[in-house]
Design brief:
By secondary structure, the chain is α/β, with parallel strands linked by helices. It has 13 helices and ten strands.
Length: 326
Amino acid sequence: MEYTRLGTTGLEISKVCLGTMTFGNEADETVSRTIMDNALERGVNFFDCAHNYNKGVTEEIVGRWIGPHRDELLLTSKVFFPFGGGRNDQGLSRRNIIASVERSLKRLQTDRIEILYLHHWDENVSLDESLRAVNTLIEQGKALYLGLSNFAAWQAATAISITRLKNYAPLICIQPMYSLVKRQAEVELLPLARYENLAVFPYNVIGAGLLTGKYLRGESGRLQEAEMYRQRYDDPRYVEVTKRFVEYAQRKKVSPAALAAAWVMAHPTVTAPIIGARNLEQLDDTLQCLDMSLDAEERAEITALSINPPSATDRESMEAMRKRGW
């Protein structure tokens, strides 16, 4: 396993992060423990959780397994989505952030979470209020670092400004959706991360299984099982991209899942992709990405199979203007 730095923290993390969203749903506890054992044996020291994954069961499974491994690992959790059934058990209020972390710590059987992500923008809460709550938890040692997931670039930039102005704990990482079929992060989020020296941990790097080619073969998966994923990938252009990509992988005689993850890893601003699995076979398949090293030319070939997102300003880059002539 190769390791990299977690932003400016000085911590060393594996080049892939183990996603746990399947634990307690598609993967029962026995399978989940096997996946965690295998990942740890391979040198993965970074596990990604969330307080609402499978109504808390995911964190409970991780908590029962972690035991003597706790100090070997970096754990994340997230807060925003409804959990607990109460009217105020959702969103980024100070009340919900602090209560959610307390519950997560009990489920995970730990005294701290290395990264606490605000899981989604909350239009009903002052961002200062949310960041102040996280800062309190960091001062208490219950969370160590602040991360943002599913925030737009302007929202993340606003958070950075507030933390600096108020001297709160700084933002150290973002977690965007990013894959060959979902490249919106390239427009503003990844440039922001590069400029601010933020760590980047993309999720859905194989497009909920789309880029493995299994749906082309008539197999089942999240796109049929969950309405959220069906809507997320309900664009016929994604199917065409997948066809071109799978054919490319077949010509190269490599796993499409591994190649899709390797393409994400090869972006210079990406720190580590989040890799999830329903079983050990899926984990083994995708982790072949660790044996791949795409150079700029190879990555460009694969990128050309996809659809370029429009520029944030609808103008050419400075390099393009120079080539064209001022």
